[in-house]
């Protein structure tokens, strides 16, 4: 499927900015466990906090804010409670659900083993497909992405994912849901 943005020339993400509770611990995890180089650090004016950037590859960055007065995360609201397959992974509207890193298919298992060797709890391998359950137990031609999930020290849900095939016109076949389709109990009174 040939897709092109005819409105803006976007080349990917400049950065995605998240909030952490402990910048030193965040630097240790993202630099030493995930191997992402720390490329820019900023102390915000008037003691308002810090803003650090990690190289996520291909000119993209993952950034973190640290604010001295930020509120604690609310699992199940501001982010998922845990990994898919291990509990609840729904999060609130306008929250961050997860960040997926594109990794090479031929390194996928090696990277999963490296994380486990570093003491990171990883979820099961998920072969995302178009079946009723959306998950294939074994690889097949319908699997479009293979992934596994894990969390950073603040509980931010992360995913290593590798695309297994290109998309076609058949991959865009669902009618978008609206706010009216949401469960009434989940909407504020």
Mean pLDDT value: 87
Distance separating the two termini = 43 Å
- CATH class call of the largest domain: Alpha Beta
CATH topology of the largest domain: Signal recognition particle alu RNA binding heterodimer, srp9/1
Shape: globular
Roughly how much helix do the residues carry, as a percent range?
Answer: 10-25%
Low-confidence stretches: none
Protein name: VOC domain-containing protein
Organism: Gordonia neofelifaecis NRRL B-59395
Domain VOC: 12-163
InterPro entries: Glyas_Bleomycin-R_OHBP_Dase, Glyas_Fos-R_dOase_dom, GlyoxalaseI/FosfomycinResist, VOC_core
Short description:
The chain is built from two helices and nine strands; from the N terminus they run βαββββαββββ. The protein has 189 residues and is of the alpha+beta class.
Any overview of this molecule?
By secondary structure, the chain is α+β, with helices and mostly antiparallel strands. It folds into 2 domains: 1-70, 2,3-Dihydroxybiphenyl 1,2-Dioxygenase, domain 1 (Roll), CATH 3.10.180.10; 72-170, Signal recognition particle alu RNA binding heterodimer, srp9/1 (2-Layer Sandwich), CATH 3.30.720.110. Helix content is 11%, strand content 28%. The chain contains 2 helices and 9 strands; from the N terminus they run E-H-E-E-E-E-H-E-E-E-E. It has helices at residues 23-33, 108-117; strands spanning 15-20, 38-44, 49-57, 60-66, 99-102, 126-128, 135-136, 145-151, 157-163. A 5-stranded mixed sheet has the order 5-9-8-6-7, covered by helices on one side. Strand 2 and strand 3 (49-57) form a beta hairpin. The longest helix has 11 residues, at 23-33.
């Amino acid at each position: 499927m040939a897709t092109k943005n005819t409105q803006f020339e976007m080349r990917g993400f400049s950065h995605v900015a998240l909030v952490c509770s402990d910048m030193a611990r965040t630097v240790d995890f993202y630099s030493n466990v995930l191997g992402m180089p720390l490329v820019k650090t900023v102390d915000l004016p008037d003691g308002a906090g810090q803003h650090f950037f990690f190289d996520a590859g291909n000119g993209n960055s993952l950034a973190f804010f640290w604010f001295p007065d930020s509120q604690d995360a609310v699992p199940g609201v501001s982010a998922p409670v845990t990994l898919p397959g291990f509990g609840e992974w729904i999060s609130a509207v306008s929250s961050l659900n997860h960040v997926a890193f594109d990794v090479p298919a031929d390194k996928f298992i090696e990277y999963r083993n490296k994380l486990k060797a570093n003491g990171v709890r990883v979820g099961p391998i998920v072969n995302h497909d178009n079946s009723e359950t959306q998950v294939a137990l074994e690889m097949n031609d319908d699997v479009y992405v293979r992934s596994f999930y894990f969390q950073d020290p603040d509980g931010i849900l992360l995913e290593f994912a590798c695309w297994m095939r290109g998309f076609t016109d058949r991959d865009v076949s669902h009618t978008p849901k609206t706010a009216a389709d949401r469960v009434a109990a989940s909407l504020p009174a």
